[in-house]
Amino acid sequence: MPNAPIAVAILNWNGKKLLERFLANVLEHSSSLAKVYLIDNHSSDHSIAYTKAEFPAVEIIALADNYGYAGGYNKGLKHIEEEIVILLNSDVEVSPNWLEPLFSRFTADATLAALQPKIKDLKSPQHFEYAGAAGGYIDILGYPFCRGRIFDHLEEDQQQYNNYQEVFWATGACLAVRKSAFEQVGKLYETLFAHMEEIDLCWRLQLAGFKVAVEPASEVYHLGGATLESYSPQKTYLNFRNSLIILFLNLPHSHAIPTILARLVLDGVSAIRFLLSGKPKLLLAILRAHFAFYGMFNALFLEKRKRKSAPLRSLKGVYPKSIVAAFYLRKRKTFKDIKL
Fold it and tell me: What Å distances lie between residue 262 and 46, 102, 120, 254, 338, CA to CA?
């Protein structure tokens, strides 16, 4: 497959140290099948100069500002012509032959629009990694989880999830997309800025009749936490706010309102847990997330009018119960335990 139409697009913002660590690996295992791009979100740490000097084969797309994950990729992909584009975090180490299984799946199925490899933890390679593991799912209240990861519980990879599988969402850490489908559904929703935008995209792809899947024959290793540390107030704010936004936008009104009311209660419980565990800044982040969401209603109503919607139960990769209850009350700690 010497002329496979694949682009590997790495989004960067002041990530020179990550480029020094990971970019050579990506080029080594990608250049025979793909063109590698660096989309730079207006870095000030000489990332572009370093890449030009050390990796002249990488095509640089320099943006005028920091547009976040969603805006950065939307603007960057305008300059990429390849039909299959892999949105790759700058802190991912890839494996030999990681591209072939992904490209083969796209070639075999024209309805496949988003695909991820198996994501493992670079710091603990025998375990799945938080951001995607072996494919993303969602529960009836909109809480995301994965094959291999429920909340913060990461399973050891014992090849228990090695089958190709349709899922609800594919991780933004290493997200292969069919560019025509990506553009058809409206690209990434830039209001989200960062976090959960890939879930929103995959939701819209399913609503448009496309498939989202995981191909574990391809394996990559994610460092994680390179942009925002786990449990940072900003990350907590974005995750809670964005979860409410995508529920409102993609569910029918008759489902969105009761679901958001239920989330108000459960998010309140999470806030209390953070307070009791000595993390008052995270409690404040949840409160800020809810107030921000309520303050966006006018803009969200306009966006919702452009979108299709359907009950969650009608889509692939949905757990028809509460993953919160399964995990915390019934002590179901692994994906196989919940009997999807």
Answer: 46, 38, 32, 13, 21
